[in-house]
Amino acid sequence: MSYFTQNSLLSFLGYPVSLQTFLPLSAPSLHFTMDWQGQKLAEQIMLLVFAVTAFVAGYVLGSFQMMVLVYAGGVTLTGLITIPNWPFFNRHPLNWLDPSEAEKHPKPQVTVSSKKKGFKK
Amino acid sequence: MHSFGYRLNGLLTFAVTILALMCVIASLSDNLNIPSPSAEIQIMNINWFQKQPKGSDEVILTMNISADLQSLFTWNTKQVFIFVAAEYETRKNSLNQVSLWDAIIPAKERAKFWIRSSNKYRFVDHGKNLRGKEFNLTLHWHVMPKTGKMFADKIVMSGYSLPEEYI
């Protein structure tokens, strides 16, 4: 499962989930990035719409093959739109924190409080 | 969501899950179809009716089978398997079923047919009970889907009987 769907599924089920912002170590080489949340939503909506269209087309035409073909075409189209890093989807890119800058400000350590069942004085 | 591979995997997993759901709904849509099949079988001739040497009775007969099974086909039907069985009762068994003939109908256009044929499979009894026996000829069909549940049903035709003495 993708990271975001896993995250949203866990938060839906009530598990505490922390959304860490990524500090991609290879940030300088990622020239084009996409809006990942938007990409996941676009993928889900497009696939559902294509599934419904394919089923209706197959049922009305009375042809199972038509349903599968329309759906396969839909999956390919969705893949072409959502998977590669298209530059025109990256008009407003996020400004990632420079790695050298990040080292100067380390993330705070969470102190783990140990639970003791009973104090014996 | 880092790389091409992750996104491709996520997309394909979701797409295949939705495909499975579509197949389930397609199979459920088969229940909307109410079939109205009809069939008729005539026995043209009893060619052979003897007991096998030191064995049981055997019959060879010629049947004229005509049927209209077009209403069984839906968009989710791959093929229909039909067979004709002779059913009768003896002292030892309350129900004996012997399959005499079968066929596969691959498409709706071929589902309305008539055929004259002798029994494809041997009609042999467990014993020597067939003289003067009354039996039913039942046409069974199994509708095999492209995805999902298979439906089976039958038409029972009664009133057939074998001669009192061996031929």
Q: Give the chain pair forming the largest contact, with residue counts.
A: A-B, 31 and 24 residues
Q: What is the total tally of β strands of chain A?
A: 0
The poorly predicted ranges of chain A are 11-31
Query: Can you identify the CATH class of the largest domain in chain B?
Result: Mainly Beta
Cα shape of chain B: elongated
**DSSP helical segment count of chain B:** 1
Q: What's the main sheet of chain A like? A: none
Helix content of chain B: 10-25%
Write down the CATH topology of the largest domain in chain B.
Answer: Immunoglobulin-like
Q: Assess the beta-strand content of chain A as a share of residues.
A: under 5%
Secondary-structure element order of chain B, as H and E?
HEEEEEEEE
Number of strand elements of chain B: 8
Q: Mind describing the biggest β-sheet of chain B? A: 4 strands, antiparallel
Protein name (chain B): Signal peptidase complex subunit 3
InterPro entries (chain B): SPC3
Keywords (chain B): Endoplasmic reticulum, Membrane, Signal-anchor, Transmembrane, Transmembrane helix
Family (chain B): Belongs to the SPCS3 family.
Describe the structure.
The complex is a heterodimer of chains A (121) and B (167). Chain A starts with a helix and ends in a 17-residue tail after the last helix. Chain A has helices at 3-13, 36-61, 64-82, 99-104. Chain A is elongated. Helices cover 51% and strands 0% of the residues of chain A. Chain A is mostly helical. Chain A has a domain at 35-87. Chain B is of the alpha+beta class and 167 residues long. Chain B folds into two domains: 1-32; 35-161, Immunoglobulin-like (Sandwich). In chain B, strands 1, 2, 5 and 6 form a four-stranded antiparallel beta sheet that branches. Chain B is elongated. The model of chain B has no long low-confidence stretch (mean pLDDT 93). At the A-B interface, helix 1, helix 2 and helix 3 of A face helix 1 of B.
